[in-house]
Amino acid sequence: MTFSLLSLVVDAGDPESESSFWHRLLGGTVTRTATHHFLRIDGFPVIVIQHAPGHVPPQWPGGVSQQLHVDLATDDMAGADERVLAAGGTRLSQAGVYASPAGHPFCVRPA
């Protein structure tokens, strides 16, 4: 028996802002339903933004655990910082740690 990764599911109180953020950052296409937004990007598993009423963002570092995070690689750290911020992300530290609009932390590392 083998397994393959079908999707990464992200909870968000506002699926539109969360899926728009990841779409601006990574490209691909977004398909929307009443409760889920499906972001499809070549070479990635599907990222599913799931509507979660009452979603409480992780408080990381120093609070509620981060639950899950994504690492992205880039060959241009300064350009990546600008792109993340322009897409609606928040810088959590100078060490390449950011948060999406729903508060999910992710890291950008040199490729």
Automatic annotation (TrEMBL):
Glyoxalase-like domain: residues covered: 8-108
InterPro entries assigned: Glyas_Bleomycin-R_OHBP_Dase, Glyoxalase_6
Official protein name in the record: VOC family protein
Highest classification ranks of the organism: Bacteria, Bacillati, Actinomycetota, Actinomycetes, Streptosporangiales
